[in-house]
Amino acid sequence: MKLLFLNRQEVRELLPMRACMDVLADAFRAYSNGESVQPLRTMMKVPATEEILASMPGYDGASQSLAVKLITVFHNAAEAGFDSHQGLVALFSAEHGNPLAIMDAIEITAIRTAAASGVATEALANKDATTLAILGAGVQARSHFHAMTEARDIKSVRIWNRSRDRAEALTEELSAKNSADVTVADTAEAAVSGADLICTVTAASEPILKGAWLQPGVHLNAVGSSTPSKRELDTDAVVRSRLFVDSRESAMNEAGDFLIPKSEGAVGDDHIVGEIGEFLSGKVRGRQNRDEITLFKSLGMAVEDVAAAHLIYERAKAEDRGVWTEM
Asked: What CA–CA distance (Å, rounded) separates 250 from 226?
């Protein structure tokens, strides 16, 4: 039995943003239609630290594929030259159960997370949205820039980060790749002032975005927080928004951006309008008017990794990429 190995560069080249957005839209529909299976991720904290080892298995009904992602989240990793998210995705045959491929998870996570926000943005943002604010300057900031420019005709981008040096470096990099006017904002409030689209992609534990700063009609993608005790948005921002999630089950158990306002009595479970897959399937209404504030709370789902891994595997075989090894 042979197994295909695909490295980070190969994964990046085999998973273009537009193609990933398309397969994730199918995966969201299948998940919300009950055609997919994914348990809540298992997260283990490394003793005496806040670092995490997570296991995310899933079956994607759209591609009829089976995989598991094993990933670590080490926020001190940058000191040693590593990304905060590291790991691998193992793809299996859903017919016979045999392993098919092992591939880098860093690029899959970076691309599919932003692609999910891209799908939500295409679904919920005003069609003429042109001004983008990105809070954060890491891997997901870069990926979200590419997803947002795929989803909308972005003319202006403002980037804010606690470390201004990182924001300036990312601004210089993105300015060289796109015609949009990319600048650094001095504060988070200045970044989001007048923005049509906002992506929060930080490691913040406490809110960095206030509802009082939001203009009518803005669409938010809240991405950085994925545990019940952490959030990037204050309660007012959530209360003011029409809230959509990737997975209702995950949001009810893991989304601090929702669970903390809920614990305060500011919102109830019915504040979640629906899953993005339910909107794509026509089961719930999306944006109802130009001035409504819409919010996509992204936690990241195993079926996203499965769908992306299936696409990568099929493209790798067609293009003769990667290294085959006998098990």
From this structure: 9
55 DSSP β-pair partners: 42, 70
Structure confidence at residue 50 as a pLDDT band (50, 70, 90)? confident
Per-residue buried b or exposed e for 6-15, using 16+ beta carbons within 10 Å of the residue's own CB: beeebbbebb
Q: What is the C-alpha separation between 103 and 90, in angstroms, rounded? A: 7
Mean pLDDT of the 292-310 span: 97
pTM of the model: 0.94
Question: What is the Cα–Cα distance from 310 to 95, expressed in whole angstroms?
Answer: 14
Q: Cβ–Cβ contacts within 10 Å for residue 51, how many?
A: 16
Indicate the length of the chain as a whole number.
327
Beta strands in the chain (DSSP E): 2-6, 42-45, 52-60, 65-73, 85-92, 99-104, 131-135, 156-160, 181-184, 197-200, 219-222, 241-245, 272-275, 293-297, 323-326
Closest CA to 34 of 249, 263, 289: 249
Report how far residue 6's alpha carbon sits from residue 310's, in angstroms, rounded to the nearest whole number: 12
